[in-house]
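User: My advisor asked me to double-check a structure prediction for Amino acid ABC transporter permease before group meeting. I don't want to rely on an old file, so could you generate it fresh from this sequence?
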Amino acid sequence: MNDAKTEAEKAPAPLAATPSKRRKRNRSVSQTVQYALFVVLLLVVAFTANWPVLASQFVRLDIAARLFPRLLTIALKNTVVYTISGFALGLVLGLIIALMRLSQVIPYRLLAGLYIEFFRGLPALVIFMFVGVGIPLAFPGSEIPGGTYGKVALGLGLVSAAYMAETIRAGIQAVPKGQMEAARSLGFSHRRAMLSIILPQAFRIIIPPLTNELVLLFKDSSLVLFLGVTLEERELTKFGRDLASETANTTPIFVAGLCYLIVTIPLGYLVRRLEARANAAQGRS
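Assistant: Sure, here is a fresh prediction for Amino acid ABC transporter permease from the sequence you gave:
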């Protein structure tokens, strides 16, 4: 009897759960609850939404068929043209402002800083209204080259330049200072070293954020409707709104939104791939 009691006393007590195991168990329970709530929410939406009404209002195939081919040959084409022209102008202007921001000349830095703060602080809609109305009033008889295409390029370019200038400045400052010092020791002037050595490296660094800016500009091109465009100058949003008014149905707007997704989702995927590649390159270095 005593021997049995002694053996029972010598038997190891069961180990208590370690803190890491408890955290893992709590995390598993929390995730299970979240998944269950998500499934419940989906079921509630699936069984309470009025799908026939939604389909008749947003997915009328007969109305969607009437959008083609003008949706592609006019609306999507104009949206792409507006975006590329605004991006090109913004990139050139942003590069100039970034270099002014980094200049040793104080007035240049002040002007660049004021530009960036001003155009980043104003809504893009205000800039478009200024381009469409303010400039003709300020300079009577003057016209922006390119008509509506020139106005859209100017509006998008002014807005995007403020953001791209800061992106380019950050990219230039991310290049090791030794690159400039090495170039100057080889006899390069500051300007030549900046153009030939620093800027190419900086642009490799900032390709992902610049691509992201292109996605934002693609969506901001919808502001062209405030400039008063002709039927042949409409972009996706204006085109969808006009057809929605004609058909008394929102299917055209829904289809136009799908066109935005068809372009922006691949661009977003490209941004993630470029960022992953840049991070991998930094890890190897």
